[in-house]
Design brief:
Elements (H helix, E strand, L loop, with lengths): L1 H8 L11 H9 L7 H7 L4 H13 L3 E4 L2 E4 L1 H11 L3 H10 L5 H18 L11 H11 L7 H7 L18 H18 L1
Antiparallel strand pairs: 1-2
Length: 194
């Protein structure tokens, strides 16, 4: 199951060198808490300068985002760790950051569909607005019929594609749920006219 997630996401991720992983792990483990690079340096076995370099590189790649002077993990960071380490605990982190109550298999299938949709659109994890659960659905809703995913994946994902009117999380101050509703409306119009 995690191998399938890795297959669909590996090409979408920036390289994640060994020096960045402990820093990213710390941010994801402590989400929603924001931490300064110095606070992380005290907790990991790296030099302070290596931690600062890692934090800035992770932020450039959108795996963590600035929160004032601190930084906070994003779902992209949890997905990157899941793909690199294939550890099921990062599935739990993805669910926690998105605020969803799905089981491991459904979450993995959802990530497979999301990775396939993002790849089909020509984006990378850095460019895709998936920090918001509802926004991530927009990528899948517009592409699901053309992704040629295994039937079990489509069957698990299709009922999840709903857009709440309000969402708790935003990514970078943008409200992607509005984009999601617009894309869903366009998909429905195209479906109705076909």
């Amino acid at each position: 199951m995690l191998g399938l997630v890795r297959y669909f996401w590996l090409d979408l991720l920036p390289p994640l060198p060994e020096g960045w992983r402990p820093v990213l792990r710390r941010y994801v483990e402590l989400w929603p808490r924001a931490l300064t690079p110095y606070a992380v340096a005290k907790e990991v076995d790296l030099t302070t300068s290596a931690v600062y370099r890692s934090v800035y590189a992770l932020a450039r790649n959108r795996l963590i985002l600035p929160a004032g002077r601190d930084y906070r993990a994003t779902v992209k960071g949890a997905i990157a760790l899941l793909v690199e380490e294939e550890d099921p605990r990062w599935l739990k982190a993805v669910r926690k950051i998105w605020g969803i109550g799905l089981d491991d298999i459904t979450t993995a299938f959802y990530l497979v569909a999301l990775g396939a949709a993002i790849r089909r659109l020509g984006f990378t994890i850095r460019e895709a607005y998936i920090c918001n659960w509802a926004a991530s659905q927009a990528y899948i809703a517009t592409q699901l019929d053309s992704l040629r995913l295994p039937p079990a994946v489509e069957e698990a994902v299709r009922p999840l594609l709903r857009y709440p009117s309000e969402t708790a999380l935003e990514c970078n101050g943008i409200q992607p749920n509005r984009l999601g509703r617009n894309l869903a409306d366009q998909a429905k119009i195209a479906e109705d006219s076909a």
